[in-house]
Amino acid sequence: MKRALENFLLEWSDRPDRLPLIIQGARQVGKTYLMKWLGTARFARTAYFNFDERPELKSLFEANKDVDRIITELGFAAGFRLDSDSLLVLDELQDCPEALGALKYFAERRPEIPVVCAGSLLGILLHSGHSFPVGKIEFATLHPMTFREVLPVWSPSSAEFLEGFGGLEAIPDYFFSDLQNLFKRYLVSGGMPQAVQALTESGTLEACDRVLDNLLLAYRVDLAKHPKASEVAKLSSIFDSLPSQLARENNKFLYRLVRSGARAREYEDSVEWLTRSGLVHRVHLVSKPGLPLKAYEDSNAFKLYALDVGLLRRLARLPASVYSDGDRLFTEFHGSLTENYVLQSLVAQDFMSINYWNSGNTAEVDFVVQDGQEVVPAEAKSATNVRSRSMSVYVQKFQPLIRIRYSLRNLDFWGGMLNIPLFMADWTQELIKKAKAEKGQSPR
Question: What is the pTM of this model?
Answer without folding.
Answer: 0.93
